[in-house]
Amino acid sequence: MTTTAIETPAGALAPPAAAEPAADRIQRAFEAEELRGLRVGTWVRFAVILAIALWLPFLTPTQALWYYYLLMVGFVALAVAHYEVRRRALDAAWAPYLFVLLDNALLAFTLIVPNPHARGILPAGAQLHFGNELYFFIFICAAVFSYSPRVVVWAGVSAALAYGTGVWWLTLQPGSYAELANMTFTISPDRLIAHLQDFNRIDVSTAIQAGLLYITVACVLAAGVWRVRALVRRNAVAERARANLSRYFSPNIVEELANADAPLSAGRRQDVAVLFADVVGFTKLAEGLAPDRVLALLREVHRLLAREVFAHGGTLDKYLGDGVLATFGTPVAGPRDAANALGCARAILAALPEWNGARVRAGQAPIRIGVGVHYGPVVLGDVGGAQQLEYTVIGDTVNVASRIERLTRELACDLIASDALVVALSAPDRALARDLVKAPSQTLRGRSEPIALWTYRA
Predict the structure, then answer these.
(1) Which of 212, 248, 421, 424 has its CA 20 to 30 A from that of 343?
(2) Which of the four pLDDT bands, split at 50, 70 and 90, describes residue 345?
């Protein structure tokens, strides 16, 4: 088939609006999800602290309760303040870093500074003998819901800074002394036990190990967050590319392109159904219309044709001025390709009365569309240069389908189907051809043998 000049497919669909960059959309989506996470986290924190507040009177003397209740209010206030700042100003990029630092600082204060109202206050260094430093992992893990690798790393760093500052403060208290070296192998077992039980001893090496562990765990979690963000970004870009492709290609071609690691297959031969459809007398009709009206009419025609082609599983090969070339059975052939092509042709004609009724009511002339369908072997594959490819079909079957469609003017009908297409219908699909009328065989231009045809008038 000699390919005619192709009109831009943009006429079939509204042109895309100015698109927001994909990176910005993804960032906004993460920020919105972070805000939802903050809201849920605030309620969870409130519920947990409320449960602790109700249980605390059974564990702590009354005179010491108010100190802990005040700290609990501080934790809740930080969560509420963080949420409100982000809700009112999503672009406040500094907020997560500040509030993560404040959370860790308040936690360090809670775990290290003794309750001044508690009876029998132990030496300051005793605060390091209860394993409370593990609570910092709660805030490090909670930072994951910021969906920001940098915030997660900062959670680990700020936990190490807060805990390290607390340990340094303990070394400054009266009676306390810092120890950096491990004395396990330098003193006797009895002295070692007594030494380890000394609450005035501040084990700096253990504090350093804890800080390094906070940072290590935070980096591991941050790497996980980074991978999740990269995966979401790749999927979003792929979906956007698929959506953009669907504006120009039929759904089955989009699926083929999306799932292929390379351009569509090299040329191959297979049997497909080919459909040509265009407006009868379009040139004369367009002569009396302004250019914008002509384009508007083309868009309406293309929309109607494309809708029915896609609805019947076809591939919209190309727009040809006021018509289309569509194939059924590309890129993968199926048992109902001939039935889908004939069903599509009939659906196009069935949709015309309603569309023309609307046009007449609007003071516009009705439109007639001629359709030709044929079934047979074609060569299909990529054509074009290295920079731009077009997936199309070529061969005698395509030429015959085009010339059959042109015969609708001579035979005064709306649809012509070749006998080859009718024969290709399976038994359950024969009903589609029940009201087709056998026409005299026609000898088409460029062919020596006549071809048997069936006609239909809507």
Answers:
(1) 248
(2) very high
